[in-house]
Design brief:
Helix content: 40-55%
Number of strands: 5
CATH class of the largest domain: Mainly Alpha
Oligomer: single chain
Strand order of the largest sheet: 1-2-3-5-4
CATH architecture of the largest domain: Up-down Bundle
CATH superfamily of the largest domain: Recombination protein O, C-terminal domain
């Protein structure tokens, strides 16, 4: 790939723009969260058709404008095709993408968040652990990356011991083994209640994708 700005990243969101274009939000390692326009990406014969869609992961070539980028070429290495066939999985993925976008800004290295998002989507695809547990592990770790997660939770005696142990694992475990644990349903319930309180206290916005997810799953 020659010319332009080359970045590694994942498409978080893609919406129609004009008659044939798409406006995409890409989480990139090198430049953080950026907005780009994919010209004619809605045409069936467009080479950007698949690249300008949520969860597309790979390398992107962009031209930099004054207020946005133009996506001109892409080399996609992962589409999460198995996840796309699962409606509930897609809802989880959309929420993870929106949550990652909340904690990401332009011109800030987002490699850690990008790796977390990739690992979380892979965990959803593999179904090695309940999706709801993947969700809370992702939320907590993303808040840690964003510098907002209250570390004193790990030492708070008012929090159930099994929940504190689970949070400690999520906060400290290397990413390669983050999604390789199991806990009881009771612990998942306690973890969910704790994290919902923390998220509600520290995040000042509602996530539309979370509302849809909760409607779909009833949790």
């Amino acid at each position: 790939m020659n010319g332009g700005v080359e970045v590694r990243g994942m498409v978080l969101d893609a919406v129609p723009a004009g008659e044939y274009d798409r406006r995409v939000t890409i989480l990139t390692k090198e430049r953080g969260k950026i907005t780009a326009f994919a010209r004619r990406a809605r045409r069936q014969d467009s080479p950007l058709l698949a690249a300008a869609s949520p969860f597309a992961l790979g390398r992107f070539i962009l031209y930099e404008g004054r207020s946005a980028y133009t996506l001109v070429q892409a080399e996609i290495t992962e589409y999460f095709g198995q996840l796309r066939t699962d409606l509930v999985g897609v809802c989880y993925g959309a929420y993870f993408a929106e949550f990652a976008a909340y904690y990401s800004v332009e011109n800030q290295d987002a490699g850690e968040m990008l790796n977390l998002l990739y690992a979380s989507l892979r965990a959803l695809e593999k179904k090695a652990m309940p999706a709801v547990l993947v969700r809370y592990a992702f939320e907590i770790r993303a808040m840690v990356i964003g510098g907002e997660y209250p570390q004193d939770v790990i030492r708070d005696p008012s929090v159930d011991e099994s929940v504190r142990y689970t949070v400690r694992h999520i906060v400290r475990e290397p990413l390669r083994s983050l999604f390789a644990f199991t806990v009881s349903e009771e612990t998942v319930t306690g973890l969910a209640a704790l994290q919902d309180r923390i998220r509600g206290r520290l995040i000042d916005r509602r996530f539309r994708s979370l509302e849809i997810l909760e409607e779909m799953t009833g949790i």
